[in-house]
What we know:
single chain; alpha/beta; Rossmann fold; CATH 2.40.50.1020; 5-stranded parallel beta sheet; 5-stranded antiparallel beta sheet
Amino acid sequence: MLPIFICEDDLAQQQKIEKIIRNFVMIENLDMEITLVTDNPDDILNYLEENPKTTGLYFLDVDLGHELTGIGLGARIRKKDDLGKIIYITAHGQMSHLTFTYKVEALDYILKDCPDGIEQRIRDCIKIAHASYLNDQSKEKKIYKVNVEDRVTVIDQDDIMFISSSDVPHMLILHLDNSHIDFSGSLKEAEAALPDFYRCHKSYLVNPKNVREVHKSTNEVEMVNEELALVSVRKMKGLINLI
């Protein structure tokens, strides 16, 4: 999920930007969420220090009423998050050239004195950032997309233990290391979307990478998180050969 950060010292502007973003993400069912809203740039830098692998979307004001300007904050963010997308929403149009001086590589520079266009510009930036995020995810790792309550959620395939049938018709259960996700679909569809997984039972599709042990006596497979999945007799040999 792509995290969104807002740093704006004007409370009314902060609330307006947050509302625009929150509503658009919800309406479009995007795999992103607002992680931090603040008027203090140190809050964002501290978050990135504690979460060094973050790739985020940042909406920043230029004048933050702080010793660190939005331009300086962008430069600091860029050192910690080189793939993140930075957007400035500001009244200081004359300072846009500083984004080049500080090598911030801002996605957009939106002026507050054009209120009618702010919402559409923010939406456009969100679309671009989300598309880039999904593209980067697919390049770096194999992903699996599931529909959860009308929202598309992106899962790293390596994090999946197995997928099992649910007692609820047309529903499946995605088993992760420490959690489960219920989503709509069929095992046949999941099997087609996950060619590296193995259909070891009519109700189970397992990730061979996360298999710890195969228990022949009980026809079960134990995953690295100690969860168990059933294995049919005729599928046992194929699973053993695969792992």
